[in-house]
Structure to design on (144 residues):
């Protein structure tokens, strides 16, 4: 199950991503907004809480740049959020970083590219191996 959310800067892109998820028969829960002006930290928390409480295993956060959402998400223990504007990063942040939240900017990436980024993010699994120790070190940074 995917948790998805946006602010007003990412709303149009969220509609496109949800259409794609519907086509792919990927289940998701929409955490807002519905196009109205909102503060992105409020939406980031809603999406990330779905992951930390176990309801969802991944999240997608969309704002104007993807950056504000990622900054907020990465303050929450257990969240590894990556802003992606290319498919290579989307693939390797899953393989190497075990990212559990994908952030994108609705004012940065076009719909076609964004959907390919979502595909890479959802299609790839964490490689484990040598990356486990690095993730453990990352986890140890939480709260510092
Ligand atoms: C909203 O105008 C904009 O600041 C927001 O969508 C996002 O880009 C912040 O990082």
């Amino acid at each position: 199950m995917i948790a998805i959310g946006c602010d007003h800067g990412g709303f149009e892109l969220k509609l496109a991503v949800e259409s794609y998820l519907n086509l792919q028969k990927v289940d998701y829960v929409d955490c807002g907004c519905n196009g109205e002006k909102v503060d992105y930290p409020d939406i980031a928390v809603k999406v990330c809480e779905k992951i930390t409480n176990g309801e969802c295993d991944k999240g997608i956060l969309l704002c104007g740049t993807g950056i504000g959402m990622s900054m907020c998400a990465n303050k929450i223990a257990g969240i590894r959020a990556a802003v992606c504007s290319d498919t290579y990063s989307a693939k390797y942040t899953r393989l190497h970083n075990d990212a559990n939240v994908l952030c994108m900017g609705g004012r940065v990436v076009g719909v076609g590219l964004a959907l390919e980024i979502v595909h890479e993010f959802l299609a790839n699994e964490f490689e484990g191996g040598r990356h486990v120790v690095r993730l453990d070190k990352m986890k140890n940074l939480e709260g510092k």
In short: The chain has one domain: 2-140. Residues 7, 9, 40, 63-65, 67-68 surround D-ribose (CB under 6 Å).
